[in-house]
Amino acid sequence: MINSKNVKYTILSILGLLLIYLFWYVKNAVEISEYLEPGIVATHYNGANYVGSQTCYECHAVIYKTHLETAHFNTSFYPKEGSIKGNFRSDSNELDLGSVRLKMVMDEDDYFQLSNVKYKTKEVVKSKIDIVIGSGVKGQSHLNWKGNDLYQLQVSYFQPTDSWVNSPNFPENALNRKVDDNCLKCHVTFAQHKDKTSDSKSYDRERIILGIDCERCHGPSENHVKYHRQNPDVLVGKFIDNFKKYNRQQRLDACAVCHSGLQAQQIKGNPFSFIAGDTLSLYSKNYRNVNSNTKLDVHGNQMGLLSESSCFINSPKMDCITCHNPHENQRGNASVFNAKCLSCHEVNTINKVVEGQEHTASQNCISCHMPLVPSEVMKLKAEDGINEIPVYIRTHLIGIYE
Ligand code: HEC
Ligand code: HEC
Ligand code: HEC
Ligand code: HEC
Ligand code: HEC
Ligand code: HEC
Ligand code: HEC
């Protein structure tokens, strides 16, 4: 016998189940569409969207992980214990510059510079360190937000002496100086101007991508990620450039945009307009020193120096990637670099005797042919006021030094 009560219950339970299924379906559909639509972190001036390097992890895990260890990835970041260098505790956290006294302090979460201009006022100005510039291999500088403007603080960390110093080229009591694209362009992936139409040097604080990340070298990658999430069976990269298809100039330009020294003049767009694959000479022009000696702006000018080397001039295919893997930290790995030299030079055909010895494959080639040279830019006056303590940079003018 059919019980009308039972029928009611059955219908109700079926309805209930349907409802649960509907919830589940909607929630899943939202999750899938969220997955297929990566979150946008910033928008380039050409309209393309950045999605951030975490997005790359699911398909390029190995590259993602090794990249975290590079000086590029760590060249700018929000201050955090372990990465921010220098002493913020009260034994050697002070710097006296004559007219201004400075002190570096920290509380639970944040780091600050305290400054007090002597003779003028007793007032102590407390400036928060909002962004750190520099991986710390050589040093670190600090930036502070005032509204939407960024300022570099007076004190920097200097690795060779492991101490606080006046920031390079800083007047003694400037306390801070405004930072624009000409500082950020080489140390961040992207910074979006507050007002896109003008030459504004105010930034959108939510749209700044710190570190030199995947999308700095590979371009904003939203379309690439979307496509491959929707088409997991396609194993050829879409909507992304392959460096192997670039000509030599394009490959060089992708690095030269930041490794040609500090004196570049913008002739098109702004310093973030150029992306890999473009021709750099259409965007900026370098005032290059013509005299070819190691003094040629060693600071950051690997491109200028390399291009004057006999290796480079006589090898039609040599570029930065010949010796560097952009995804790995290779600093100090002499055997990797020796192998690169030996891929073109056979030691047993080098008939030159050096210091009574023949060339052998186990010698460290760069110690003689790419020596460390003092930087003209990053240096510190020693306490005697006369001598200078420089940072040493590996010259890319490969040659014979005595
Ligand atoms: C859903 C998977 C997926 C995601 C997410 C993804 N990629 Fe890819 N990518 C691929 C596939 C598949 C290829 C082709 C095979 C390969 O080279 O690994 C590729 C290739 C590439 C290439 C080489 C291009 C070529 O022609 O060989 C680059 C560069 C690249 N991806 C960069 C990125 C970056 C940067 C991100 C993060 C913003 C990213 N990918 C995220 C799937 C993905
Ligand atoms: C044209 C590109 C470029 C610009 C502009 C630039 N830098 Fe650099 N910077 C570099 C390069 C490249 C290095 C690595 C050292 C080298 O090769 O000389 C570097 C190194 C540094 C370091 C040391 C990092 C380490 O190795 O530990 C600091 C700190 C730094 N820069 C701060 C700044 C600040 C602050 C500004 C703006 C006032 C600035 N840079 C502008 C390219 C640039
Ligand atoms: C400093 C610039 C730079 C950065 C940063 C960078 N790449 Fe690359 N990437 C390159 C260059 C240059 C090549 C071409 C290498 C070659 O031709 O051997 C390349 C090649 C690739 C390829 C092709 C396969 C391969 O191994 O050659 C993939 C995939 C890729 N990059 C993904 C990434 C991802 C993901 C990140 C971030 C985690 C990243 N890259 C960060 C410069 C960079
Ligand atoms: C957006 C600017 C930018 C681009 C593009 C760029 N670099 Fe750099 N590179 C830097 C800066 C800044 C540093 C210094 C990082 C630091 O120590 O804080 C650096 C450091 C390095 C170092 C030293 C790493 C170490 O362990 O200290 C190498 C090698 C290097 N770059 C090679 C390359 C190559 C090769 C390319 C092209 C594939 C490239 N870079 C593209 C800005 C850039
Ligand atoms: C892509 C190939 C290639 C690579 C890689 C290469 N070289 Fe060379 N190098 C050349 C060529 C070609 C010449 C010019 C002809 C010659 O002297 O053999 C040259 C010339 C030289 C010279 C003579 C310089 C002069 O001014 O007379 C020295 C020294 C040298 N290379 C050292 C090195 C060292 C050290 C490395 C590794 C850090 C290296 N090379 C990597 C191709 C290369
Ligand atoms: C012939 C090989 C070779 C080529 C080509 C080459 N480099 Fe290097 N580079 C080296 C070696 C070797 C070092 C030293 C690595 C170390 O200290 O462990 C180095 C170091 C660097 C450093 C760190 C300098 C320092 O002292 O902190 C930067 C930045 C750099 N290279 C950028 C470039 C760029 C950009 C290009 C292309 C214009 C390039 N390199 C081409 C071999 C090369
Ligand atoms: C102790 C220092 C030292 C080391 C280490 C060293 N070289 Fe040399 N190399 C020299 C000197 C000095 C000369 C020039 C000798 C002369 O002209 O008589 C030279 C000459 C050369 C030349 C030019 C040869 C020619 O025919 O003009 C090449 C190429 C070269 N070295 C490559 C290398 C390579 C590759 C390595 C590493 C396996 C290396 N060197 C290690 C000091 C060194």
UniProtKB/TrEMBL annotation:
A Pfam family annotated for this UniProt entry: Cytochrome_C554
UniProt cross-references to InterPro entries, sorted A to Z: Cyt_c-552/4, Multihaem_cyt_sf, Multiheme_Cytochr_ET, NapC/NirT_cytc_sf
UniProt keywords, alphabetically: Electron transport, Heme, Iron, Membrane, Metal-binding, Signal, Transmembrane, Transmembrane helix, Transport
Transmembrane segments: 7-26
GO molecular function, one term: metal ion binding
Domain Cytochrome c-552/4 residue range list: 176-219
Protein name stated in the entry: Cytochrome c554 and c-prime
Provenance organism: Maribacter aquivivus
Lineage: Bacteria, Pseudomonadati, Bacteroidota, Flavobacteriia, Flavobacteriales
